[in-house]
Amino acid sequence: MSDVLSQTEIDVLLSAISTGEMDAEELKKEEIEKKEKAYDFKRALRFSKDQVRSLTRINENFARLLTSYFSAQLRTYVQISVASVDQLPYEEFVRSIPSMTILNIFLAPPLEGSIIIEVNPNIAYAMLDRQLGGKGLGVNKIDNLTEIETTLMSQLFEGALDTFKGAWSSVVDVNPSMLEFETNPQFLQMVSPNETVIVISLLTTIGESSGMINICLPHVALEPVIQKLSMHYWMSEKKHDRSPEDFRSLQKRVNQAGLAVKAELGSSQLTVNEFLNLEADDVVKLHQKVSEPVVIKIGEQPKFLAQPGKRGGRLALQIMEVLVEGDDNNE
């Protein structure tokens, strides 16, 4: 419903107030009560909006890298995008995922504690089906995975940890390693039930199957880098990311760069027929006198005027004048 009242609604409201059917003070009281919100201490918001935005950017990059990785591994159409980023109690996250699912628990020092990547069974089995040569059909049979299927799936997600490292490289260099592969969330006791976690939900499509991949990041895991997730930190880092050593190194490389230098003794115009009939000992008349200086070009840009001659038995050029941009001699 629109918050903007029509003129008819405004007239009815003013009429009700003037006739005493409605009390203006009661309307003010109701408006104040609407602004009041109950605070649930079990859902403590420990991440600022700025930090949530930074985590969203990091995981958007993670989703792109993950799309490329799974597309290459499964050799089929894969599309992954960030659907939502929420902070909630760990207990609520555990209750929200299926009773039988794919749980990849890994470490990523210097981040503390464990991190979970939960993969919806429909998506997980579509990946497994592709690995085994199928069409990528999403059939939920997670409750009775064989040892071979478990190994294949575990290796697939272990390889995906490199994309996690790449996504976080702009904030901190992490070294992820798989800790455990689990299918029952009831066995997970990572943090206390009321601990705040960030849950990033990635909408995933593999072939004709779709589902969610959820990343659970406990607050305690992000504490070592929590300050780096603020926009103020990113801007200050960007401002001071060049040290004097960087500039000196850049200057040294520029000074050592090679340039194409050539001296033009003159030019001439020939017809195609004259050019094709040139023979040994023929003389080509140039449009430049012997007494005139030679133009030295850097690349294709005229830069110096010089006098040709010899030095130490070798052909040489003595620079007579430096041309400036816009000089008539540049023609």
Please tally the β strands and state the result: 10
Average pLDDT rating: 79
Helix fraction, binned, reads: 25-40%
CATH homolog superfamily of the largest domain = CheC-like
Q: Tell me the overall shape.
A: elongated
In the CATH scheme, the class of the largest domain would be Alpha Beta
Give a structural overview.
This protein is α+β, with helices and mostly antiparallel strands. The protein has two domains: 43-239, Chemotaxis protein chec (3-Layer(aba) Sandwich); 261-275 and 286-330, SpoA-like (Surface presentation of antigens (SPOA), Roll). Helices cover 36% and strands 24% of the residues. The chain is built from eleven helices and ten strands. It has helices at residues 7-19, 24-35, 49-74, 90-96, 121-131, 147-159, 161-168, 219-222, 231-239, 244-255, 272-276, and strands at 78-89, 102-107, 114-119, 177-182, 196-206, 209-218, 261-264, 294-298, 301-311, 314-322. The strands form two sheets. Strands 1-5-6-3-2-4 form a six-stranded antiparallel β-sheet. Strands 7-8-9-10 form a four-stranded antiparallel β-sheet, with no helix packed on it. β2 and β3 form a beta hairpin. The radius of gyration is 36 Å and the shape is elongated. The two termini are 71 Å apart. Its main location: other. This is Flagellar motor switch protein FliM. Pfam families: FliM (PF02154), FliMN_C (PF01052). Belongs to the FliM family. One of its GO terms (molecular function) is cytoskeletal motor activity.
